[in-house]
């Protein structure tokens, strides 16, 4: 009988076994990572330094950018390093830590996006009570709960996945560790904790999704009663991208974490993994901040030498 304790690591299959393609993928992901990292850190810097951008909306945007930086910094640097040295191995503790951080930051981002939708709901539907409802203590509490719930869910999710032993094939057909692939090589007969955490994750994600949809239904009904077409257009421009990015993030996350273990990962599922890890951190600065007139004015004040194409985004 095979001694399961001999399994000391995994092999991340990635996108190609050809060394040349591995190097090319590594360089491409390096470029994407630098774009995501610099754009989100720029957003955090501006929102921290500019005293005129201290409204609750910008407080949540700063937390979202920090979550984006954290999320993209977990799997991508490891994948870049492995691709450039042509070594796709990862230890079991490293895989567990990667899964813990990925699920924590992903769950935290979903909660933060829900808090942002509530902020927009109060601002548009209850403008006279906005300052009383969205005061500093409330914002800090909502952001703190988002981070804490993310860490709690990540801990439960990871502990359940790594509570058993692993045997058989040690190949993970992704470029980072995820639960479906790990369940395929698990020897444990007691996976109740894993499936329970999956069910909790689905319920929480769907609850956040329905809360956001409900918020935007009320926002839509309020905006449609605004007589000014210009004000309506501004509200729609602010709200619609938020809902689109949230939907893309949740659907791709469902594909990554809730894919049935028996289903072999396809090229489409790997591309969705890329969308889930890379696309939101790149798009969020554009969707939530760089298309915001206050942010663009702050960019011009704080970075007068910034190239015109960057600050003239509309």
TrEMBL record:
GO MF entry, a single one: G protein-coupled receptor activity
Q: Which Pfam families match?
A: 7tm_4 (PF13853)
Membrane topology listed for this record? Multi-pass membrane protein
Q: Where in the cell?
A: Cell membrane
The text of the family note is: Belongs to the G-protein coupled receptor 1 family.
Q: What is its main location?
A: membrane
Q: Which UniProt keywords apply?
A: Cell membrane, G-protein coupled receptor, Membrane, Olfaction, Receptor, Sensory transduction, Transducer, Transmembrane, Transmembrane helix
Q: Name one GO cellular component term.
A: plasma membrane
Whichever gene encodes this chain, its name is LOC101588614
Q: List membrane-spanning regions.
A: 26-47, 59-76, 96-118, 139-159, 192-217, 238-258, 270-290
Q: Which residues form the G-protein coupled receptors family 1 profile domain?
A: 39-288
Q: What is this protein called?
A: Olfactory receptor
- What role does this protein play? Odorant receptor.
Q: What is the lineage of its organism?
A: Eukaryota, Metazoa, Chordata, Craniata, Vertebrata
